[in-house]
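pipeline: protein-struct stage 2 | run 1193 | Probable imidazolonepropionase
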Amino acid sequence: MSRDYRLLVKNAKQVVLVCSRGEKYLTQHGMQDLSVIENGSVVIGRDGLIKAVGPAETIAAQFADASFDKVINATGMCVLPGLVDAHTHPVWAGDRVHEFAMKLAGASYMDVHRAGGGIHFTVEHTRAASSSELLASLRDRLVRMQRAGTTLVECKSGYGLELQTELKMLQVIEEARRTLPINISSTYCGAHAVPRGKTVAEATENILQVQLPRLREHMEAGTLKVNNIDVFCEQGVFDLGSTRSILKAGKDLGLNINFHGDELHPMNSAQLGAELGALAISHLEEVTDQGIRAMAKAQTAAVLLPTTAYILRLPQPRARDMLEAGVIVALGSDFNPNAYCCSMPIVMHLACVNMRMSMSEALAAATINAAYALGCSNTHGSLEVDKHGDLLVLSSPRWEHLIYQLGGHQELIGYVVVKGNVVYENNQTMGL
Ligand SMILES: N=CN[C@@H](CCC(=O)O)C(=O)O
Ligand SMILES: [Zn+2]
């Protein structure tokens, strides 16, 4: 057997595995009691997969005659799995800082949307932008996310609302996936809003008869890899019936159902998602008790987005009720021109303070459960042998500092590693 490896991270004060028995997700007590090794090391092979993780002394003995392309001495530091951001809209042109001012002055999200702003404003600018402009800004945003610890990120289309721009966005995401050292799960979200001048029925028809068939051709030809299908199921956007037909058609294409539901009004989106076998539903600020029970039973993950409730001053999603009912709770940044946040550490902090999650629950939600929401928890979301060697090294002796120090991740994160390669190194780290 070869004794050459890509990376050894040795002697960490804590190695947070999150889980260690091949769990696909964590719920209830499992989220409270994360697997942590005190004084541990991790070995990543040349194939980018984890070969060993365990007590530092055991690893030192087991790999005494091995050679490593790189060794990180993590004495006094913590190692965590790379963070997983389960919901973002990172491909767009034209910021909406002016709308932030309107909302601070009292306008609601739907006031702005109905007045032709919001998603419509971004659609106009994104349709006009070239692929290279979109790719350049996407790259910058992904770099910012990565520096904040994200190593797997879901990226949606949805600012085209017609075939050409939706395809342009998905191709830009595909190019990022091919060329950037970050894992991407891509989502077709052509039903993000009803285009100006069209009815819901016309928009649904266009998606079913024009956009999805062309997407199928690209997927079959191997020119696009798309993982998930999304719809914004909301009053004044896509109703339950149109949502159902679009999601079902996406599922027939082999896409995972992962959609926006019960955000501003109770729509019975959670029940619909459970019925269709959705992998995940995002937002859920207005989910009902029945919806919570249906999601728990169907093992449909709830992707909660603390930045949205915070920025729009919405009621907080009922994280505690969901956790107690056994729902698989995950987290996402919801990065988009409305909620401009690239940082999962800040998202975890908000989840703890505003949604009353514990720090362990928040970390599980931002790692193994977010990976589950993207159908990737067999390869990502925890530090276990044979999973991808994606991890963070923090310059603090306890991992909880990543959540506790609000906005402190820039100084705390010393290394971000993807498949055993250091993709970000920060020489300016500061301890406590
Ligand atoms: N709610 C719908 N979609 C996004 C917002 C997109 C936008 O405002 O541009 C969300 O998840 O928050
Ligand atoms: Zn969204």
